[in-house]
């Protein structure tokens, strides 16, 4: 559940998430557990988390989705509109966008019975920021004063042998059990609107005393609590009756099932063996098959805040010439791909930022995101690239078909063989990318945690950003993003973010293909299904019945 009303907020902040611990795979467990077969437990397809469920170390959609059931942050985002509202926070105030005072509502508890306090947030944020802890979401803390004293990761993304000089950021201060302050190194109007993202969740004291025990049995403060996890099969949660949020869950639990084949998941929805599938396979769109398979009451098409793309691992010198990257982009016929694979039901991307994110500007990419086979071949040949072009993707979330079509388009335009190399699960795929063991052009996607242009740039294109697995780095982009973050108004910030987007597109480390939309499907017993703008289901409002 990601659902800000920032009380008396003196500045209007830009809303700006995610992309991409436990790897493995399987179509699904026929009978994951007795509890999972309960009439009031919702079975739900999800990609398996790539890492243990530590909020500061989770950056891919599968893990984020499960964390959204286990945790609540200071704010949450409305399922239909993505509008922010307070959750654990009573108020979030700042007179200058630099010093933020955060007051918590009383009576919030973790699922182990301990209280959620200001210290729960401050300790979690410090732990995430401290670079020897190797948290993937550390860069989200970079605006807080003292971050550079607790995080000394180099521009190469590696943690040096020398420890940082401090373990706690000077900008975080606990005032009392219900109040803390966050002082930033410079004004950042978007800070308050980030605070519903997983990186900013509170953590129980037990995590800091025994992290391994926490990883075996995660403890949050959200509407559901952890029950069990079977690697490669499912993860089961049950309703947390001590949940202090305004919306209590109606179902008694959720059985997150890890399919490696979306067609199998879709067949299980049709047969009432799976309750909810947030992303139906491309085969369901062929000849409007889904409209024949399911009545309108059991499906919904929706746009969500994200893009689908391919990207280059810039730690491999074969891709250092941007002419290679630009040529690949112009060799893909996006319109034909969408027509062939998705029956025309996607929107070709004309930039990195989708239309439903604040700060979007049309046609940021220009001809680089249009089909220009002759120009593409001229650029590619001039680059001197050797060998075939190879694309890779995980195949557990319905990506193989469209990546193969993109590969065919590249081969036809460039006159160079293009090969597809399948990866198994998203978790294993993201782990391999993080470890730099993938050297092919890779499929990637970004689903926003907050719908702002800022969230599509800082994590993905800032040096060492949390989602920057391709190791993109451009000092000009870094400087523009820093100026945008510190801009005195939203309009000035957006203008600078847009300039940074244009530069990142010219560098073309990430090749946007389409803006994200999907069709969800559900069983006959599901009612009040509300897909969110973050490609999830609103878990607290869904009901089950005949």
From TrEMBL:
Residue span(s) of domain Solute-binding protein family: 84-467
- Do you know which Pfam families this protein is assigned to? SBP_bac_5 (PF00496)
GO CC, sorted alphabetically, is: ATP-binding cassette (ABC) transporter complex; periplasmic space
Q: Which InterPro entries match?
A: Peptide/Ni-bd, SBP_5, SBP_5_dom
Q: Which GO terms describe its biological process?
A: peptide transport
**Coiled coil feature spans:** none
Keyword NAD carried by entry? no
CDD domains annotated for this entry? Answer: PBP2_NikA_DppA_OppA_like
Keywords, A to Z? Signal
In the UniProt record, the signal sequence range is 1-29
What are the recorded GO MF terms, alphabetically? peptide transmembrane transporter activity
Could you tell me which PANTHER family the record lists for this protein? Answer: ABC TRANSPORTER SUBSTRATE-BINDING PROTEIN, PERIPLASMIC BINDING COMPONENT OF ABC TRANSPORTER
Q: What is this protein called?
A: Peptide ABC transporter substrate-binding protein
């Amino acid at each position: 559940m990601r659902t800000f009303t920032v009380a008396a907020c003196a500045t209007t902040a830009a809303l700006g998430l995610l992309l991409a611990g436990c790897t493995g795979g399987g179509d699904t467990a026929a009978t994951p557990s007795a509890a999972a077969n309960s009439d009031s437990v919702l079975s739900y397809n999800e990609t398996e988390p790539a890492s243990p469920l530590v909020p500061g170390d989770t950056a891919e959609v599968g893990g984020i989705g499960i964390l959204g059931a286990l945790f609540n942050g200071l704010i949450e985002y409305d399922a239909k509109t993505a509008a922010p509202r307070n959750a654990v926070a009573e108020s979030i105030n700042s007179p200058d966008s630099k010093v933020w005072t955060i007051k918590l509502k009383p009576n919030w508890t973790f699922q182990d019975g301990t209280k959620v306090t200001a210290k729960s947030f401050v300790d979690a944020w410090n732990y995430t920021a401290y670079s020897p802890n190797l948290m993937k979401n550390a860069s989200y803390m970079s605006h807080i004063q003292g971050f550079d004293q607790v995080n000394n990761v180099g521009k190469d993304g590696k943690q040096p042998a020398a420890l940082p000089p401090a373990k706690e950021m000077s900008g975080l201060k606990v005032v009392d059990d219900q109040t803390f302050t966050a002082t930033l190194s410079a004004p950042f109007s978007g800070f308050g609107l980030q605070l519903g993202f997983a990186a900013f969740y509170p953590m129980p004291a037990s995590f800091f005393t025994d992290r391994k025990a926490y990883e075996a049995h995660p403890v949050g403060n959200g509407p559901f609590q952890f029950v069990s996890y079977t690697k490669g099969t499912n993860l089961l949660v049950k309703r947390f009756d001590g949940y202090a949020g305004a919306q209590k869950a109606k179902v008694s639990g959720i059985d997150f099932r890890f399919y490696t084949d979306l067609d199998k998941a879709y067949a299980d929805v049709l047969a009432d063996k799976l309750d909810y599938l947030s992303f139906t396979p491309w085969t369901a769109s062929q000849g409007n098959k889904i409209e024949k398979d399911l009545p309108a009451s059991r499906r919904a098409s929706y746009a969500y805040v994200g893009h689908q793309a391919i990207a280059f691992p810039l730690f491999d010198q074969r891709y250092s010439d941007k002419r290679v990257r630009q040529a690949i982009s112009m060799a893909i016929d996006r319109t034909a791909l969408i027509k062939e694979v998705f029956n025309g039901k996607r929107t070709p991307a004309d930039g990195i930022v989708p239309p439903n994110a604040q700060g979007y500007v049309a046609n940021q990419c220009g001809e680089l995101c249009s089909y220009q086979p002759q120009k593409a071949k001229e650029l590619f040949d001039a680059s001197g690239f050797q060998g075939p072009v190879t694309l890779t993707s995980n195949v557990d979330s319905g990506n193989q078909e469209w990546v193969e079509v993109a590969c065919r388009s590249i081969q036809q335009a460039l006159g160079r063989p293009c090969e597809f190399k399948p990866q198994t699960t998203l978790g294993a795929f993201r782990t391999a990318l993080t470890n730099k063991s993938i050297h092919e052009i890779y499929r990637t996607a970004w689903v926003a945690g907050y719908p702002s242009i800022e969230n599509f740039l800082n994590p993905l294109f800032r040096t060492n950003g949390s989602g920057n697995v391709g190791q993109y780095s451009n000092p000009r982009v870094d400087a523009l993003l820093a100026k945008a973050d510190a801009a005195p108004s939203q309009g000035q910030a957006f203008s600078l973010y847009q300039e940074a987007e244009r530069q990142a597109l010219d560098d073309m480390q990430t090749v946007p293909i389409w803006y994200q939309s999907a069709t969800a499907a559900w069983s006959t017993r599901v009612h009040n299904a509300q897909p969110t703008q973050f490609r999830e289901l609103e878990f607290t409002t869904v009901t089950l019945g005949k």
